[in-house]
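Schema walkthrough. Field components (list of strings):
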Amino acid sequence: MNSFATTKPQSSATAGVNECECAKPFATTMADLLDAMGAEQGDRFAALQLPIAVRRLRAGENLAHQGATAEALYFVRAGTFKVFHTDVDGYEQVLAFATRGEVLGFDALCMESHPTAIAALESSSVFVVLRSDLMMLSVKMPAFSMALQRAGSLSLARSRELADLMAAVASEVRLARFLIHISQRMAAARLSPRRFHLSMGRREIASLLGVANETVSRSFSALALAGLLHVADRDVEILDMEGLKAYARSTRRRADESLVAPTGGMFTRRSTPGRRSTAGLRAMVS
Amino acid sequence: MNSFATTKPQSSATAGVNECECAKPFATTMADLLDAMGAEQGDRFAALQLPIAVRRLRAGENLAHQGATAEALYFVRAGTFKVFHTDVDGYEQVLAFATRGEVLGFDALCMESHPTAIAALESSSVFVVLRSDLMMLSVKMPAFSMALQRAGSLSLARSRELADLMAAVASEVRLARFLIHISQRMAAARLSPRRFHLSMGRREIASLLGVANETVSRSFSALALAGLLHVADRDVEILDMEGLKAYARSTRRRADESLVAPTGGMFTRRSTPGRRSTAGLRAMVS
DNA sequence: CGATCAGTTGAAGGGTCTCAACGCGAGTGG
DNA sequence: CCACTCGCGTTGAGACCCTTCAACTGATCG
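Field assembly_structure (string):
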């Protein structure tokens, strides 16, 4: 009930089309494309006789298992998913959280089996495109092919943003960056970027950020103590967005190398070492 | 001269075709596809009149600048590239190293400008495909479309392997995993997986692994002291591959959650906390 | 109502960051 | 030709942040 993703206003297909008016004038996500095309009836797109089904999942349900043969590609229609990788030791490494418009299982296209597992974090639904239909769809529908390319590209760009998350040294900075990412996704989905409900647990956030789950708790408390956030379990309210962004900008000690020579040369160095404010948040609150 | 990547035996196109016999029976990389098709003459594929050019870069030269308008897609033909992101503070975060067969600039497909910069680490060459030609190529050549999808998929899979690298707590484990990745790439390229030359510096490795460059040096020394490696600047020889792999398997403290219920249920937990050997390499050498 | 689990907080220990110094090789200009 | 500079790589020492173990609270559920 309090989760944003389950209350997303995209119930009927006709309403979905009208919502796309001012979002991205040049780009359409695959979910929008399929939602607009299919007045889906009985989990089947009969309108254009496309071999695209809709599958609904409950919270905790797995969409794909790690190592399972990859038979289909999925596009998130509603809800939130986590992409993760389970080690031989049993440690679960979360690689990404996916929301509407993103493709799932794209990393399995270049191999036979899923390198990563996918699970729903809440009640969700996806479009299912069989791999065996992929070539036919690409040939018959250039728009599908382009949308698929863009979805894959977005997935890669998101994955690289993740590296930026984990690149920060301080755990509080990682969490701040993570929350800003969430906030920006919320804004893109026409939802409040200041107040939202996290559909994932502390442990999953910790895994994504590459820290211990206790550290995530402490970082939440620290950000709240600094007056940047208001945290109540999984409900987060950003009180000082500018302050949060400023804090998220803290980086590792600057590498001595920064600029590349304008033409053809080797790297040039600059000598200012720079130091990061190791005091961090504790300076803001005292 | 001592660099492997510049001595890769893929000089003529006809030889390149024969080399693909036993590698991947079902999949062809874009670089192989283009190399096999084009008896490239004058940096242009005149054979099939494809609008695909070849561009050569020297070490340190930039293929794309961060924030520049994305006009083309690139496929690595030879050499090594680094994909990186420069922070506002000037800190340079390395996101990936790319070798033959990988696509560059794929993450820019879903937007207008390059989110990441790309630079050559050594003398390299790429195939250049203009974005304006992408639709035409996809329609006229289904093989191109499929190869592009696979290249993007591979890029995403690699990016997620990176998250596995940075997920390890101990810096020595991160380096061990990194070296194993390099080794596996070498094997895929038909080169010695035990002895190779790193085309990137310590600082770039450190940035990729998310640690300080001094720590990378120390980790190299530690792995060498343990008898797993022999290191001479950028030349690495793996002495004990099994030992290295075993060591790379060390993970963060196991999350209590490990297995998902086979059907539809929530997560099940197991109570064995498990502890990682905090002694690490120091136990192996003493 | 006992059990289990998510989340929080505390305390101790260790690993990594940072600053610093050194050797070394390459490129440059005297 | 060689001193000089610059950057890379290595190693040492101290401070600090995070990990780990532990205990507690509150919520959910059978």
